[in-house]
Amino acid sequence: MPKAGALTISQSDAKAFDDFVRHIERHCYDEIEASSEAKSSVLRMHLERMHMVLDTLIDYADEEIDLYWAGPDQVKLDEADPLLLAEISKRSGLHLHQISIFQLPDDIFFGTLQIAVDDVAGETCGLIRIQQWPSDLIGGPRWAQNGAELEETIQTFIHAIPLER
């Protein structure tokens, strides 16, 4: 139980608390399946509560958020997001990829990008799923022109994500 009365926290303790929450976001998962790890809704709810507390303690105004990605990994049809599948259902010969997106400066998992590349038409359909509580935020599916290389196409979708705390 917390002590009675007003509680105080030093600047260094607030920073340590912020670092700890970021560590939990990066490295802790409580739903583990054969091919993936995820945070349960309960854990995500607790993290959201910790962010509410941190917002009263930490000044994030000067902190710049940037994204980077890892992958792409091949995706089978049965692993693709149903929204993406519905959008591409009238095309054939597409190849599917999934890209993991991370947030700098702390390497926090941000979400995933699934893309379906149509080399013949020179277009790619992408769907971004950003990890949030109580439900994920979904961007897309949207079509974009293919870049010269797959990495350029992926970067087009990553740059389209609005970055606001």
Number of domains: 2
Distance between the termini: 31 Å
DSSP helix fraction: 25-40%
Oligomer: single chain
Labels describing this entry:
4 helices; 5-stranded antiparallel β-sheet; 165 residues; two-stranded antiparallel ribbon; 31% helix
Q: What do these coordinates show?
A:
The protein is built from four helices and seven strands, in the order αββαβαββββα. It has 165 residues and is of the alpha+beta class. It has two domains: 11-57; 66-159. A five-stranded antiparallel sheet has the order 3-4-5-6-7, sandwiched between helices. A two-stranded antiparallel sheet has the order 1-2. α1 (11-27) packs antiparallel against α2 (41-57). The model has no long low-confidence stretch (mean pLDDT 84).
Short overview:
With 165 residues, the protein is of the alpha+beta class. The chain has helices at residues 11-27, 41-57, 82-88, 150-159; strands at residues 31-32, 37-38, 66-74, 95-104, 108-118, 123-130, 137-145. The chain has two domains: 11-57; 66-159.
Present the secondary structure layout:
Layout: H1 11-27, E1 31-32, E2 37-38, H2 41-57, E3 66-74, H3 82-88, E4 95-104, E5 108-118, E6 123-130, E7 137-145, H4 150-159
Antiparallel strand pairs: 1-2, 3-4, 4-5, 5-6, 6-7
